[in-house]
UniProtKB/TrEMBL annotation:
Pfam families: DHHC (PF01529)
Gene symbol of the encoding locus: ZDHHC16
GO CC entries: membrane
InterPro entries: Palmitoyltrfase_DHHC (IPR001594), PFA4/ZDH16/20/ERF2-like (IPR039859)
Swiss-Prot/TrEMBL catalytic activity: L-cysteinyl-[protein] + hexadecanoyl-CoA = S-hexadecanoyl-L-cysteinyl-[protein] + CoA
Keyword check for Glycosyltransferase: no
Main location: membrane
Topology relative to the membrane: Multi-pass membrane protein
Name of this chain's protein: Palmitoyltransferase
UniProt GO molecular function: protein-cysteine S-palmitoyltransferase activity
Family (UniProt): Belongs to the DHHC palmitoyltransferase family.
Keywords carried by this UniProt record: Acyltransferase, Membrane, Transferase, Transmembrane, Transmembrane helix
Domain Palmitoyltransferase DHHC, chain residue ranges per copy: 142-289
């Protein structure tokens, strides 16, 4: 009897606990709903951001953990292309091309490869730059709502790295790193030289690709004929010749090289052109959206928006690439160079390479 009463009391306690938890969840949901309508600044964008917050959290964490996989994928695919070129294509070039063309392919191919490896290594190992956490005398800064620390102009918070990044452009999963003030040039140079390398491989290997594709089609036909002969074989029938493993591997490697390089050239080339347009305007990917909204807002008031960080197309490129004197086009652009960008990313003074003065504006 006592055991029965004890079980009934435990059942009542559990029911009360479940009811209490349900009431707490109801009050919490009600509070969240009221918080969305707390003030007049709430609009449809805020509501959508709040509803999609779990999705954003999932994407951020997946990108963070899969960054290493993406870097390994880039290294693996690039290494496979380089191996195919050295094992399959280079002996063929040395046997069939003229000495002038051989010198051209050896010089350009190795220069392009060195530029790709150097800039990718620097892009993934160089910190994009972070603002100091301590309070100092920085002017024109705001406070990051997530870091609760000073946030200089052009600085934005990366939800994947969970830190503020100086002159942040975006978080690149293929680098497993943010693209910011100190590694933006390395990222763009890697995209540019990788696109140039893929275009070079696609154009140079076009004839080889056509021959290899035709050979693979002949392989399929001969394999089909061989199977038919094997099914109806008589003593006077001879099976068709078969391709060796080396021939099959060679032709399939050439097709793989051309398809991969052509696909990467199209996709990465479009991304490179997009970033080249942003650099010409003196913007980052994030500032592109911010400036567009600001341009529309001022246009309604009859005013003209001007980007305070743009010095003109040509000067923007010189500032971005760090070209101060003419010889820097060779030593800093066409050759590997670890030189630092202009400024510290905390303030944006006029670089020495800019030829035309600008009207000073307050950066907010």
């Amino acid at each position: 009897m006592r055991l029965l009463l004890k079980c009934l009391r435990l059942g009542r306690r559990r029911r009360f606990k479940l009811v209490w938890q349900a009431e707490q969840l109801w009050h919490y949901g009600h509070l969240c709903l009221r918080s969305l309508l707390y003030n007049s600044f709430t609009n449809s964008d805020v509501v959508l951001d709040s509803l999609f917050e779990p999705i954003y959290w999932l994407v951020d964490h997946v990108t963070r953990w899969f960054g290493v996989v993406f870097v390994a994928l880039v290294i693996g695919l690039t290494s496979s292309i380089v191996a195919i070129v050295y094992i399959c294509l280079l002996p063929l070039i040395l046997q069939t091309y003229t000495p002038a063309w051989i010198c051209w392919h050896l010089a350009y191919g190795h220069w392009n490869l060195i530029m790709i490896v150097f800039h990718y290594y620097k892009a993934i190992t160089t910190s994009p730059g972070h603002p100091p956490q301590a309070k100092n005398d920085l002017t024109g800064v705001s406070i990051c709502r997530k870091c609760i620390a000073p946030k200089p102009a052009r600085t934005h918070h990366c939800s994947i790295c969970n830190r503020c990044v100086l002159k942040m452009d975006h978080h690149c999963p293929w680098l497993n790193n943010c693209v910011g003030h100190y590694n933006h040039r390395y990222f763009f140079s890697f995209c540019l030289f990788m696109t140039m390398g893929c275009i070079y491989c696609s154009i140079s290997g076009w004839e080889m690709f056509r021959d290899a594709y035709a050979a693979i089609e002949r392989m399929k036909l001969l394999e089909k004929e061989r199977l038919q002969v094997a099914a109806n074989q008589t003593y006077y029938q001879t099976p068709p010749p078969t391709f060796s493993f080396h021939q099959r591997a060679f032709h399939k490697s050439v097709v793989y090289l051309w398809v991969l390089c052509s696909s990467v050239a199209l996709a990465l080339g479009a991304l490179t052109l997009w970033h080249a347009a942003l650099i010409t305007r003196g913007e980052t990917s994030i500032e592109r959206h911010i400036n567009r909204k600001e341009r529309q807002r001022l246009q309604k008031k009859g005013k003209v928006f001007r980007n305070p960080y743009s010095y003109g197309g040509w000067d923007n490129w010189k500032v971005f690439l760090g070209v101060d004197v003419p010889r820097h086009w060779l030593t800093r652009v066409l050759l590997p160079s670890p030189h630092l960008p202009h400024g510290t990313g905390l303030s944006w003074d006029l670089p020495p390479c800019v030829t035309q003065q600008r009207t000073p504006l307050l950066a907010i």
